[in-house]
Design goal:
The complex is a heterodimer of chains A (about 475) and B (about 600). Chain A is mostly helical. Chain A has a domain at about 270-480. Chain A has helices at about 1-10, 15-30, 40-60, 75-95, 100-120, 125-145, 150-180, 185-195, 205-220, 230-235, 240-265, 270-290, 295-315, 320-350, 365, 370-385, 390-405, 405-435, 450-465; strands at about 60-65, 70. In chain A, strands 1-2 form a two-stranded antiparallel ribbon. The mean pLDDT of chain A is about 85. In chain B, helix 12 runs antiparallel to helix 15 (about 330-360) and helix 22 (about 470-485) packs parallel to helix 25 (about 505-515). Chain B has helices at about 5, 10-25, 35-55, 85-105, 115-135, 135-145, 150-160, 165-195, 205, 215-230, 240-245, 250-275, 275-305, 305-330, 330-360, 375, 380-390, 400-415, 415-440, 445-450, 455-470, 470-485, 490-495, 495-500, 505-515, 515-525, 530-540, 545-565, 565-595; strands at about 65-75, 80-85. In chain B, strands 1-2 form a two-stranded antiparallel sheet. Chain B is built from 29 helices and two strands. Classes of the chains: A mainly alpha (about 475), B mainly alpha (about 600). The interface of A and B includes residues 396, 398, 399 and 418 of A.
Amino acid sequence: MNVWFQASNAFVTLPEMIVALTAITILLAAAFTKESDSPRPEALAIAGLVLAFLSTFYAPVGPGFFGQVFVDSLSRSAFSIVLLGAILVMGILPTQFGKDTIRCEASALILFSLCGVGLMVSGQHLMTLFLGLELLSIPLYILAGLRTSDQKSRESALKYFILGAFASALILFGMALLLAETGSLSIANFFDYFKANSTFHPTQIFYAGWILVSIGMLFKIGAVPFHMWVLDVYQGAPSSVTAFMTFAPKVAAFLVLLKIWPIGWETGFTNSIPLVYFLSMLTMTAGNFMALVQRNVKRMLAYSSIAHAGYMLMAFLVTGREGRYALLFYLGVYALANIGAFAAITIVSPKKDPDLSIVSLSGLVKIHAPLAVAFSICLFSLTGLPPFGGFMAKFFLLKAVINSGNGAIAVVAILNSLLAAYYYLRLVLVMTAKEPTANSSMGQFPLGLGSRIVLALAILGVIVSGLTPDIFSLVIRL
Amino acid sequence: MDSSLSAIPWLSALIFLPLVGVLAVLLSDHRNPRASQAIGIVFSSATLLLCIALFKIFPNTGEMALKEAHSWIPSIGAKYLLGIDGISLILVALTALLTVISLLGSWDEFGERSGIFVMLMLSLESGVIGVFLALDLLLFYIFWEAMLIPMYFLIGLFGGPKRFYATTKFVLFTLFGSLLMLLAIAALANFHQQQFGTLSFALADLMKVDLSPEIANICCFAFLLAFAIKVPMWPLHTWLPDAHTEAPTAGSVMLAGVLLKMGTYGMLRFMFPLFPIVISTYLPWLMGFSVVAIVYGALTALAQEDIKRLIACSSVSHMGFITLGLFSFTAEGSLGGTIQMLNHGISTGALFLMAGMIYHRTNTRIIKDLGGLAKSMPILSTIFVFFCFSSIGLPGLNGFVGEFLIMVGAFSVSKVLTAVATLGIVLGAVYLLWMVERVIFGPLKAGGTTPRHGVNPGNVNANANVNVNGHEHGQADFSHADLGHADHGHADLGHADLGHADLGHADHGHADLGHADLGHADLGHGSDHYSGSDVVTRTADRDLNFREFVALLPLIVGVLYIGLHPAPVLDLARPPLKKIIAEYNLKVNQNKSLPQPNGEEGRK
């Protein structure tokens, strides 16, 4: 056993192991405690996650499991971001599910999903990547449907599952094509393969496989035109779960794209770079335009998350550290602001009618001022206004994009953030400047301690990352 | 300068003192309007005092003084760089002054929401001062955009009926220009990295960057757009009348007095030094646009029916003068433009403040509903006319100094444009005097004596206060008066007066309230329950009260001081302008002496 551990260098995945062990512990604890004991799975989960986060500083880097995974600073940083985000999400769960024992399942499923993220960010073998993808997705399908009494939630789970399965099938097919062409499933091997055969010209089959895998990942990101699932799933899923969904699959899929897209580009398939350009523009523009006309808060945020995915796709136009750092920073700040926003939504959503229309938030500031202010700060950050983190994220990204000589798309992105400013700020005005409506179903919120702390931490993170963004180099160790 | 003095971070103190005030309001009982207002005035006055102290210790050499440099975002080379010269000092002092004045001017306007109002005003002040002090372009940009948020709320929360539309338009217009400027800033930093190996956003560093003509053109245009929207230059001015009309008085004062100057300041501080060669080719066009703004703004002002809207349109015209002076880019023209920034801040700020006072009393801003104010409120009318004269540019008052210098500067560049611009001065006299005639003189109209019914924030507040106090007698009296004469719709009535004093004299109050004007005197003198300050408020209900007079006094002094003895202010602005112009001329002449446009090697 010990020998095997050393040979496989298994400790490179120490953070993932801790997360998995925590998940299993929670499930066991849930099985062996009585329902009336009101278990606190979140506390256990947070403890495990904090431990996992601390271990990211000490766990070794390098290849592990005989080349199945390769942990470098990039994947470590990405996983650290997701760990921190998950810690915050855990804090919202009690507000969402109350004393329901389903919290145990929810926490464990989120942790399992996290393991999937870990595998995807560090996987070097297409099979490992696929395993990670399924490990990430299947818990999310279940999580989306956790509110079984609600038809929307069931619908979203089913939709997510069917479309997700479709995407998985595409990816698998693509991988099969890649295997058929190169005789290997290891990403490192692809590079060697093409470098060794300088005369070798990748065939159509290779590109077909490459494109299919890319499409699967773009589906997970929610890029237009593979975004159809995003709306109903974000809307129907419990808000705390949506908070997790907005960043975890994105981080994983972006990291996979960072690995596989250079393969195509290095082998001469540079035609796809304009495609990325086009995809990014399409995604941000379509997302923002559709968000403009939404009446439901969660749908609006869903469309805006599509738009943000579009911004982040711009990072692929930039080579080198600058682009990767900008991408990770954007993901981190975006996750913070989104978690804050969805924590606020979880708090104000009435239990019976989880559909939160924009109008029903009217005059929130008169009902609960700190909550409205916190929500507004998250929205300002998503808009990209200084002095909040969203501004720095956007600035780093745009600066990198301009540096790579793509000024035109930067201008498109800027015009897009103007559109975004319109709908984000409108929501802020509705909350702060309008009178509470008679039919706004908000009375007393179950403003749990956990959600309060989460909101406070998210706001703190958003402000700190806006004022001194370099502090994030503690997490993003590129 | 004493070295121990320069060790103190004066400029950071200027920026952060108002923020400490925000914190103080937040921690105090911010539902208590008087406490919040008092804290706000204390902190903004302290900032103003700090400014005055700076006048003493500040060496006016034209170089940036009292510099502060700290590492801020090392990974991209952005630094926390602050510095001040004469131009900055003038504008910072104006900001500090106008903040105190507008806080004083809206002392009891917002009742329970005062706390939020004061916090917004103080954070606005902090952001604007930061804009005037920052020497690092990223830092500058952060202040430039961060101050949008308080302004957004000032209009959105405290504005008129169309406030949502106005505030959204304001923010989107400004964002549009400034986001493009952000891209240009990023591009400049990238070029600095390519040419010098390190990233930097410091103005002094970016000025050394050698840009190819196309790149310089694009970047300069982005800067120009951002600043021109803020000024606003014609034809980008359409957000201004809406924002001004809907903004609360204090918001209008800050917007006209200070925020517009951020645009002209940005041109002077950043656009001219960064892109001298490109801007030198734009100058004739920009002067042309300025003249169009002058005439167009004046003509639209002629047609306005709302006092605030009229002043807003006149702002477009006056800002046109400022840009005309700046874009003539002669020693006199730019000096005039700079002084005119201060003058416009003082006179237009004062006019907005007084428009608010008129509205507060009469509940209307529509010119044709007003009339004969000179009869009902002589002091207010006198001061109003005084500021109108200042705005017109009557010799002996401040406006004249600036406009004269601008004309001298512009005349040396283009006689035709200057001649047309003179038309703007004439028209300025026409629309302001015409407005004065209709509002101040003439027969006493309904609007001048008795407020009309309608949406009256004062009424609502007053009623609310009475309700809170729970004195049913008081409430009954009040509503009686309200229905009968609609005269006492002022918050004054609703405050502590009714709450603690009137109960015992319910009948008395009732009768008095019924008798419009007489009632005031009676109440004030007849009842010893009123405290001294209440007497002041009530007897001066018609005309200026003491608080309002105190708020206007510094502005009156400023108008006369600059009008009669402009030398100290001119001396303050002259050295830095001389430096900016000299650097500009050096670069432009270098460029002319070269056979080909330089910067080819800077292209990648």
